[in-house]
# Entry
Amino acid sequence: MTDSELLSLAARAHGGLEYVPEMGWIHVSPDGTRGAWWNPLTDNGDAFALMVKLGIALMHFPLYETPKHSVVAKQCRLLDLENKGNPTEVVVLYEDDPYAATREAIVSAAASIGKEAQ
# Structure
C-alpha cells in the first residue's frame, strides 16, 4: 500500500480532516476553519495524536532486551481477549529509524481501522 493510500485510510479513521489536492491533508475544525497540515508518517505529534484518538497500543520488541528491532501497533479489541486475531495488528521492522517505524506502525493500524469503516 502506498503512503498516500495509508494516509487516506488513516484520515478516514481520524475524521476532521480534508484532502487538498497536491498538498495533502489538513485539519478542519467543526466551524470549518482550516488548521495545520497533517501527516503522521512524518510528524511525531500527528502520529501520537492519531494513536491516542484511536486507542492504538504499541509494543517494541524484544520486550526485555536491547537493542529493539521492531514495533507492533494495534487497536485493543475484544478479539484479542478471545485469541481470535486482530485485523488492526501490524508489525514494522525498525531498520535504521525506530521513530519512522513507529509512525508507520501507527498509521498502518489506523488505516486498517479506516478500511473497516468503508
User: Anything to note?
Assistant: The first helix runs from residue 3 to 14. Residues 52 and 98 are 19 Å apart (CA to CA). The domain at 3-116 is CATH 3.30.2120 (Bacillus phage protein). The chain has one domain: 3-116.
